[in-house]
């Protein structure tokens, strides 16, 4: 499991966070949220699955 901070939104409804392995896409995540999930690589793209929001987006 990885804990990441979402930096921005990207097309397709994904939040983008950076890891040591490169950028990770998190479905439905919002900028500023801290999330934990399982990293999965599909066709060269890193996704975070089984996501839990640890710290919601600050308002």
TrEMBL record:
* Coiled coil start-end: none
- Cite the Gene3D superfamilies for this sequence: Nucleic acid-binding proteins
Q: What is this protein called?
A: RNA methyltransferase
Keyword Oxidoreductase appears in the UniProt entry: no
Species for this entry: Thermus scotoductus
An example GO biological process term is: methylation
Q: Which UniProt keywords apply?
A: Methyltransferase, Transferase
One of the record's GO molecular function terms: methyltransferase activity
The record ties this protein, via InterPro entries, to: NA-bd_OB-fold
């Amino acid at each position: 499991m990885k804990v990441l901070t979402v930096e921005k939104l990207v097309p397709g409804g994904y939040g983008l966070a950076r890891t040591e392995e490169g950028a990770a896409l998190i479905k439905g995540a919002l900028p500023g949220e801290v999330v934990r999930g399982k990293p999965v690589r599909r066709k060269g793209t890193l996704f975070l699955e089984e996501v839990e929001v640890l710290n919601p987006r600050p308002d």
